[in-house]
Amino acid sequence: MKDLADLPTTLHQLNTQRPIKSKRNRWNVAISDFARLTHNPIRAIVEGLNIEPNPNKPLIALSIGDPTTFGNLKPSPETIDAIRQAVEDGTGNGYAPANGHLEAREAVARYVQHQGPVTPNDVILCSGCSSSLDLCISVLGGPGKNILIPKPGFSIYRTLAEGFGIECRTYDLLPDRNWEADLVQLEQLIDEQTCALVVTNPGNPCGSVFPRAHLEAIVDIAERHFVPIIADEIYEHFVFPGHEFHAVSSLSNRVPVLSCGGLTKRFLVPGWRMGWIIVHDRDGVFGEVRRGLANLSVRILGSNTLVQRALPAILDNTPNDFFDDLVATLHRHAELAYKAIKQIRGLNPIMPGGAMYMMVGIDVEHFPEFETDLSFVEALVHEQSVFCLPGQCFEYPNYFRLVLTVPEKMIVEAVKRLEEFCEQHYKFDNDILLQQQNGLLNQMTQL
User: Fold this and answer.
1) Are 232 and 129 a contacting pair, CB within 8 Å?
2) Which of 1, 6, 228, 237 lies 20 to 30 angstroms, CA to CA, from 84?
3) Is residue 208 exposed (0-12), middle (13-18) or buried (19+ Cβ within 10 Å)?
4) Average pLDDT in the chain
5) 3-state SS of the chain: helix, strand, coil percent to 5?
6) What pLDDT sits at residue 294?
7) Of 139, 143, 141, which Cα lies nearest the Cα of 131?
8) What is the pLDDT of residues 109-161, one digit of tens each?
9) pLDDT tens profile 204-213
10) How many other β-carbons are positioned within 10 Å of the β-carbon of residue 64?
């Protein structure tokens, strides 16, 4: 037996006594394909803009989709009391099952009964609605697959899909039909590799609320081609008078649906990061999908347990008056903005049916000094300190989106500045013709 003193005592000595496979001689830390393929279109566009507000006018940001930004919209006392009680009880300090505490999932199942029969086993709690969408896209898609998403649409669908090598195919929403989907085009996009159809209702950025008949037509297409639906319904309760929300899952007992929702917008707590997936299975079609979602849920060991403990009280105790007042406020802001912008030459607002956004079309031919909606938005910030997201953020040029959650006086002031801006830059047809003629003459004199 060897003497212990003869044994190697350091890692270096061990390595010198056996072959080393690595040939590395410098640092070269690469990123994954997943990271390389993942990007946020809105961030990329906004970071490329020259955003320099007028120093003589305070900035009015109509670009931020966070209803709490300006402090005028606050959570209900019941919501705050529920989270305070959960903190004091100390029951939300530890881990929970990856799909969420049973009591929280039971509360969500009660809350979403309008979607159809739902049990706690159909509920998966997530870290916000964006996390719900992430899991849904992750479980259904992969390299070589394609997913159908709306245009204009929420950019996160593309962000989530492209990292996995999933092709995003966009179907058009039609502004002259209150942003209903182009059904013929949608159906033509489907092929053997289509893994899911994303339906956003009510819509972001359009504020559209689909009529029942239109949703039924979309569901019929999904059924004919055996395509499951991912229903982004985070704004399901933000519906203005004259419109009615219909859950996609309630319209068919044959098409499997993954419905995504959460506390974020309706309860005015986006930072609490509480969302959920409701699995609406049809004849066991989603058997493998359920197992896949369970696998994916363990990647982050579940969502915020403190909010989970407060969830039953939040969902059960928040009075309807709170929600009614919130929707009434947003509707009032929408009407105010729509009626005022409708009077501005060169702009064409489309009155939303719900959510918290409005899309406004730009008659670009009457603003010839601006090549795109991006330059229009840049100049609007530079001259009037009003910032709206350009339509290109939603793959829909020559529009911009404004947010309706800001205080009413800010909407009034923003629209006033918008009118001043457009009056200064709007060109009548004769002016445009004269400019074109002068440009042609200048070219001829240079020859």
Assistant:
1) yes
2) 237
3) buried
4) 93
5) 45, 15, 40
6) 95
7) 139
8) 999 999 999 999 999 999 999 999 999 999 999 999 999 999 999 999 999 99
9) 999 999 999 9
10) 14
Distance from C-alpha of 121 to C-alpha of 375, rounded to nearest angstrom: 50
Q: Are 249 and 211 in contact (CB under 8 A)?
A: no
Cα separation, 90 vs 69, in Å, equals 29
Q: Is omega for the bond preceding 152 within 30 degrees of 0, making it cis? A: yes
Q: How many Cα neighbours within 13 Å face the side chain of 263?
A: 32
pLDDT tens, residue by residue, 381-427: 999 999 999 999 999 999 999 999 999 999 999 999 999 999 999 99
Query: Please, is 439 exposed, middle or buried when counting C-beta atoms within 10 Å of its C-beta (0-12, 13-18, 19+)?
Result: exposed
Residue identified by tokens 């993942």 is 38
* pTM attached to this predicted model: 0.91
Between the CA of residue 415 and those of 54, 212, 399, 410, what are the distances in Å?
16, 33, 16, 8
SS3 (DSSP) at 241 = coil
User: 44: which residues sit within 8 A by CB, 6+ positions away?
Assistant: none
